[in-house]
Amino acid sequence: xxxxxxxxxxxxxxxxxxxxxxxxxxxxxxxxxxxxxxxxxxxxxxxxxxxxxxxxxxxxxxxxxxxxxxxxxxxxxxxxxxxxxxxxxxxxxxxxxxxxxxxxxxxxxxxxxxxxxxxxxxxxxxxxxxxxxxxxxxxxxxxxxxxxxxxxxxxxxxxxxxxxxxxxxxxxxxxxxxxxxxxxxxxxxxxxxxxxxxxxxxxxxxxxxxxxxxxxxxxxxxxxxxxxxxxxxxxxxxxxxxxxxxxxxxxxxxxxxxxxxxxxxxxxxxxxxxxxxxxxxxxxxxxxxxxxxxxxxxxxxxxxxxxxxxxxxxxxxxxxxxxxxxxxxxxxxxxxxxxxxxxxxxxxxxxxxxxxxxxxxxxxxxxxxxxxxxxxxxxxxxxxxxxxxxxxxxxxxxxxxxxxxxxxxxxxxxxxxxxxxxxxxxxxxxxxxxxxxxxxxxxxxxxxxxxxxxxxxxxxxxxxxxxxxxxxxxxxxxxxxxxxxxxxxxxxxxxxxxxxxxxxxxxxxxxxxxxxxxxxxxxxxxxxxxxxxxxxxxxxxxxxxxxxxxxxxxxxxxxxxxxxxxxxxxxxxxxxxxxxxxx
Amino acid sequence: xxxxxxxxxxxxxxxxxxxxxxxxxxxxxxxxxxxxxxxxxxxxxxxxxxxxxxxxxxxxxxxxxxxxxxxxxxxxxxxxxxxxxxxxxxxxxxxxxxxxxxxxxxxxxxxxxxxxxxxxxxxxxxxxxxxxxxxxxxxxxxxxxxxxxxxxxxxxxxxxxxxxxxxxxxxxxxxxxxxxxxxxxxxxxxxxxxxxxxxxxxxxxxxxxxxxxxxxxxxxxxxxxxxxxxxxxxxxxxxxxxxxxxxxxxxxxxxxxxxxxxxxxxxxxxxxxxxxxxxxxxxxxxxxxxxxxxxxxxxxxxxxxxxxxxxxxxxxxxxxxxxxxxxxxxxxxxxxxxxxxxxxxxxxxxxxxxxxxxxxxxxxxxxxxxxxxxxxxxxxxxxxxxxxxxxxxxxxxxxxxxxxxxxxxxxxxxxxxxxxxxxxxxxx
Amino acid sequence: xxxxxxxxxxxxxxxxxxxxxxxxxxxxxxxxxxxxxxxxxxxxxxxxxxxxxxxxxxxxxxxxxxxxxxxxxxxxxxxxxxxxxxxxxxxxxxxxxxxxxxxxxxxxxxxxxxxxxxxxxxxxxxxxxxxxxxxxxxxxxxxxxxxxxxxxxxxxxxxxxxxxxxxxxxxxxxxxxxxxxxxxxxxxxxxxxxxxxxxxxxxxxxxxxxxxxxxxxxxxxxxxxxxxxxxxxxxxxxxxxxxxxxxxxxxxxxxxxxxxxxxxxx
Lengths: 583, 428, 266
Prior knowledge:
The complex is a heterotrimer of chains A (583), B (428) and C (266). Chain A is mainly α. Chain A has 17 helices and no strands. Chain A has a single domain (24-542), classed as Cytochrome c oxidase-like, subunit I domain (Cytochrome C Oxidase, Chain A, Up-down Bundle). Chain A has helices spanning 4-9, 16-22, 27-57, 66-69, 79-115, 123-131, 133-143, 173-202, 215-246, 271-304, 312-326, 341-369, 378-401, 403-409, 413-443, 449-475, 495-525. The two termini of chain A are 19 Å apart. With 428 residues, chain B is mostly helical. Chain B has two domains: 18-267, no CATH class; 276-318 and 353-414, Orthogonal Bundle (Cytochrome Bc1 Complex, Chain D, domain 2), CATH 1.10.760. Chain B has helices at residues 2-17, 28-39, 47-61, 84-90, 105-109, 111-114, 153-162, 177-206, 218-233, 249-263, 285-297, 302-306, 321-327, 337-345, 370-379, 395-407. In chain B, helix 2 (28-39) runs parallel beside helix 8, helix 8 (177-206) crosses helix 10 and helix 15 crosses helix 16 (395-407). The longest helix of chain B has 30 residues, at 177-206. Chain C has five helices and twelve strands. Chain C has a five-stranded mixed β-sheet with strand order 5-4-3-7-10, with no helix packed on it. In chain C, helix 1 runs antiparallel to helix 2. Chain C is elongated. Classes of the chains: A mainly alpha (583), B mainly alpha (428), C alpha+beta (266). Chains in contact: A-B, A-C, B-C. Chains A and C meet through helix 5, helix 11, helix 12, helix 13 and helix 14 of A and helix 1, helix 2, helix 3, helix 4 and strand 9 of C.
């Protein structure tokens, strides 16, 4: 490792621009590719969400842009278009934005840098894990142009709706494209996960013991394990659904179905089987979407309260506990699915248990801030925003874990409120914070703090205005996935509050323009920074900003844990994990 | 920054604001059909002719946002087939529900399938089987009147309240009666408008220079409406005074239809008493049902289409009248995809075979009452290959058939296997 | 300036609680935006549990929110040196054990409610023998409607005097009622907000829901499992009637649905 530049140079087989920036095997380029792709898909997913909101506030009125882009009758969108909207919103946000941004973008960028490695263990596999996303992008993108404008059986794709061509407008070609697209996402995730595990186990810098790993790396490590063990089950399920659709097997179809005057199916299958397989992956997937966010927030909170992370070991153990328990709680999505109610009881208990490590983490974050020397930077604000929103999302989860209460609130907007608080208020706010935090490391320039704070202020307020009232809608029994609930007497009163939410959602959308402008503008006009603009401890800040190929221009030797802030023995309030040699 | 925001805002306002109000679509399939059939090859309607029809229809029937009906008399529902009040609450864009008075009912509940013009080709229609009804032919399947007679008000109301089982037509029972009546009126309105358009096209196709006065302005219609009102008020015997001379379109084309609708209730099919032997529990019932079964296979000829097991698997290569109307008339073979696609492009639904009803499902499209089944067999189903019963079938025969069919769903053949539920355990 | 942030985070629990309380009291403009009145004998426990959890989570919500705002409150005179603390085992055990206790309590406390609503079908005594209450209506869900099959005058299903009503079902007040629910095509879910009843309907499975309505009135049934483009249209009316009214309705409807002659008025 005496000259890392030369050590890695032999790996660059494709010469020139293409090898350096497109088919690059450098983890940082790949991370950036993931980041840009997911941000662009995020815009698409956000627009779909706004279209959903538009319909809920002004049902059957002329929808701007979408009403014009797609076939509309009397200026209004059609109901099957609406089912496509929420299906694709969820699919894109989960599989193309949150998971690849956390694991793909930040996993790639941070793992080698934070453990002091020069690259991933398998750089070519790493490159493939990005490019294998492209078939998925293309397949899912193409499904917009098929009959029904895309898959429309929800992101959960419950059969028989998703399997019978006749059952839903989007259950034709679009659904097949969706299944294939998701398979490619799965392959990509699997490649990433193998790589991350190997890298973290094998390539840590001298002195970087497991118990000196920053929380970000711990969470990425556990996430990789989750993916490796949960994904095969989803893939199996997807292939069974594909074979039901294409080869006429009957894994998920009972006999005697007559959808849309269609043919009777031979049957012999069980729709609940899909739900078990799907949630066996997709519940851990919820943790795949929140654990890395938790890890990054832990690092940001410790850095900006200038204080050691409170209870490092309990934090690590609770991540492990969440991951372990995460495998035995999938049935809580199925309390009223027709599954044996006795089984519901055992899933209720495991679900209640998982609240425990989440609670421990929350209290430890609060204790980290307590008596800290809080620096009010944009990344900190987003991280505290994450904390504040995660508390709400976590507490509303207890309602659902209680099986009898779930009878009432299942598949109502209460659920929608819950997972948007966890995924938008949680993961997305944490991701925004992480972008602000690591942007200087990625691009060597600062993002504007002033714009960042305006962005946070508006995002935080509007997020709550969009999602908080959903709890009230849910309590009133407002069902999910309704294109027009207001013809029910019971839900007619809910129109005004929905209009407030939609206006907030539109403003929330516009607010992200500030972020986009800040992000793009700072690429060119941001203040140039040195290695460690935030005076943080973790290893990546010892590397140049942005790091060159091979990352470190010296061999980092780790001599302490990642959270030695405000140590009374030191002159300054931080003690980096590895000392940078004098320039 | 500021500019990006305002630019986007302008874009959205422009895209949203530039939407023209929706218009009724021209019956392009009918135009094309008549051009090929009556006018002959290479011939076309003159643009002016089609424009005349368009402007007449707009003057007489208004637009989707502001519907009108020829000869409407205010405050007197007795002489009106449809009321202005009903039309207004059914038409127009979906209005805010805050003021309590519902508006735009058709566009809230119906337009996705039946289309803005009632042509059964709304955006959702392509995904439905059977296709949504195209009202413009003026044919209705499930009614208590014989073939070629419009349904009664009650028939349409029943369809809206019960829906049509095993089709995409849902039940609108939760709507207040007033809203259901408004929608019924709007269906009549679209039907008469659509048929008027078809009739006018036929007249023009046969006689390029008809003696009908097509050109009518809104003012003329208003004046005519006032004249009718005055006539009604003064107790004039004649409810529809001649408007624009003896050959006027409204008189010749629209009002005869209106009369038919009014008189439908007088031609309701009489249903004779069901023989007492067929009432449940009667000792001779099984014998009578066996007779029904015989008829199913012999004179009734039901077996031809509905199949030996009554699963609807007999003859399955026929089409309904809405498809035949252009496809069979022009002698297009379903395999001629190019010609078929030409019509599909003009707004026709892609031809699809009509599947005879599976009689073992336990629900029936036209209603599950024994009397409904009697009417279906007696009168046939308009617009489909289901014929009216042969004259040789007596009412007792038909009742035997009805009862035979009604017990089919209870045969063990009809019951799919179900898994035992988990919560049917013995009490603890 | 930095105090603004602390206050912003403090606003979350304050406004959040306020909004919920406002909705519970149903004051303008949030009238009718909370749990609808429960009319099911078995549903009371669900409301009770909901409110209990609301109280517990409410206290934690306000507590943690306040602590968060407090930790964010900037020190006087700008920066200070942060405390050099790596953790505190006693504290961590306390905040692991107390929530654990609450969660265990909740888990056990709710078991009966779950059993009552999903496992133990009501029992009736006929001729001195206990038996499960048989289903009085067979509900068949299809895209996009609810068909309600009644056993007819002979009280047995799958006989020729069964009849079907689409979109409307009537039940007597103060009697345990069992519905057998089936689906003829895709997944649906039987949801009556006012009864706190919800059960996904799986095609190929025979399932039951039960309730005992204690207030006459018209309530709505909604489908809560995505069943296609018309999911939102899939509603029906559930009318709870006094026993006498129900008997009259049943008689009239039986006559109407088994009609063997044309009537001019429905």
